[in-house]
UniProtKB/TrEMBL annotation:
This is Transcriptional regulator. Residues 7-99 form the HTH arsR-type domain. SMART domains: HTH_ARSR. PANTHER family: LMO0101 PROTEIN (PTHR33154:SF25), TRANSCRIPTIONAL REGULATOR, ARSR FAMILY (PTHR33154). One of its GO terms (molecular function) is DNA-binding transcription factor activity. It holds the Pfam family HTH_20.
Length: 99
């Protein structure tokens, strides 16, 4: 069994990525849509509801995923996005309740 210790600096880098991703209101809107849906949603469904072009939606999904705020899985030709609740609970408890 390997135990990985995260340094304070690594924790701060994670926090920095999270806050950078959340600094864009459209990304918060994407998270709000996913929270209300309570399940994963397709990229197309999210883009249509948040009124984003495919390229803009892709850009924002990538930022959320790289910050660890969401998961993306591919099934056939469709991509599904869901919230990473564990990360929110660890770094931003109750944040999603405010949406």
């Amino acid at each position: 069994m390997i135990i990985k210790l995260i340094t304070q600096q690594q924790e701060d880098e994670i926090r920095s990525k999270i806050f950078k991703a959340l600094s864009e209101p459209l990304r918060i809107e994407i998270l709000r849509f996913l929270k209300q849906k309570e399940l994963e949603a397709t990229c197309g469904e999210i883009g249509a509801n948040v009124k984003l072009t495919k390229s803009a939606a892709s850009y924002h999904f990538k930022n959320l995923r790289e910050a660890g705020l969401t998961f993306t899985r591919k099934e056939s030709r469709e991509k599904y996005v869901s919230i990473n609740y564990e990360l929110f609970e660890k770094y931003l408890p109750h944040f999603l309740d405010t949406l």
